[in-house]
Design goal:
Blueprint: E1 2-7, E2 12-19, E3 23-31, H1 33-37, H2 44-66, E4 75-81, H3 85-102, E5 105-110, H4 111-117, E6 129-134, E7 139-144, E8 151-155, H5 161-171, H6 179-186, H7 208-224, H8 230-255, E9 260-264, H9 271-284, E10 287-289, H10 293-296, H11 301-317
Parallel strand pairs: 1-4, 4-5, 6-9, 9-10
Antiparallel strand pairs: 1-2, 2-3, 6-7, 7-8
Helix pairs in contact: 2-3, 4-11, 5-7, 6-8, 8-9
Length: 318
């Protein structure tokens, strides 16, 4: 089964074609990072306008790269939520128009399920499975007992972890997006600053406290005329955040006796999170996977794969 995926939930215009949920025939992503960098974050109106400008070109390249005729595509899968409304509408309208023009069924896919299924591209799932979804807009722990069966065990009650990274990066004088930059600085520093570890009841998260603690620490150091060791502060911040993420995930993995842990979303690219989760999973004796870097950020391959499993799940249920 050949699925064409479309992803425009934020600032990437992406179209991909995937066969049987595994074989990537084409993967085209137009990123707007350079455009939004000067604003310190994504500007919704600018993002949607760029999607409109690029969507047809990206569609055409995906079809050319796959060397496929539209009549051989069996399904179109497009991100419908969550995301920036204007950006989503560009992708939805383009996907539905393409599907209608070629007589292909079109289904809507949740962006977060796409991030989860980005892991499937390179590794089969072993159930029961626990997914830690970490991105700029989301931080969630999700239990899966079978394909397309999602139970949210916990989520952030305020800032998502990626959002905390970007806000801390801003006060440290780093350009947007700050996640990879903080990760790099953290490996050049030492964990010398004391920052809070927030453990809420159950499996919920909170990252607003550590963000405020970093800001307060910076203000205190400046008032005292003391040097701000940026590398050390980045290291202390990252260590604190990663520890909470790993501890909560492993706690849930034990309670639900899972066989497989996956990390999904943009923050899945973080080297410390990968390293610490690997150590913890090995100690627990549980399989751990995370996507290649190119599949951590927003892309259409993950939407095509998620759409593939969504279609067959719904088909079998009906």
């Amino acid at each position: 089964m050949i699925v064409l995926g479309v992803e425009t939930s934020c600032d990437e215009t992406a179209v991909a074609i995937v066969e049987d949920g595994k074989k990537v025939l084409s993967d085209v992503v137009y990123s707007q990072i350079k455009i939004h960098e000067k604003y310190g974050g994504v500007v919704p109106e600018v993002a949607s306008r760029r999607h409109i400008k690029k969507i047809i070109t990206v569609f055409e390249k995906a079809l050319t790269d796959a060397n496929i005729d539209p009549k051989n595509i069996d399904l179109v899968a497009v991100t419908t939520k969550p995301g920036l409304i204007g950006s989503l509408l560009v992708g939805i309208n383009a996907a539905e128009a393409f599907a209608l023009a070629h007589g292909i069924k079109c289904i809507g896919v949740n962006h977060l399920t796409g991030h989860i299924y980005a892991n499937y591209i390179e590794s089969d799932f072993t159930f029961p499975l626990l997914a830690l979804v970490v991105s700029g807009g989301h931080t969630e722990l999700i239990l899966m007992k079978k394909h397309y069966d999602f139970t949210v065990l916990g989520q952030t009650l305020d800032d998502a972890v990626g959002e905390a990274y970007d806000k801390v990066g801003r006060v440290l004088g780093l350009s947007y997006p700050a996640g990879a930059k903080i990760d790099k600085l953290a490996h050049e520093g030492k964990h010398t600053y004391k920052l809070p570890l927030t453990y809420l009841d159950g499996y919920n998260f909170s990252f607003s406290g550590i963000k405020s603690a970093v800001l307060n620490l910076l203000n205190t150091l400046k008032m005292k005329g003391e040097e701000v060791r940026v590398n050390d502060l980045a290291c202390s911040f990252q260590n604190s955040v990663v520890k909470v993420l790993v501890d909560k995930t492993i706690e849930a993995a034990k309670e639900y006796d899972v066989k497989h842990i996956i990390i999904a979303g943009g923050v899945a690219a973080n080297s410390s999170l990968r390293s610490e989760m690997t150590k913890a999973a090995e100690k627990l004796g549980v399989k751990l996977t995370y996507p290649s870097i190119k599949y951590c950020t927003d892309n259409a391959v993950m939407i095509a794969v998620s759409g593939y499993f969504q279609f067959f799940t719904n088909f079998n249920e009906n």
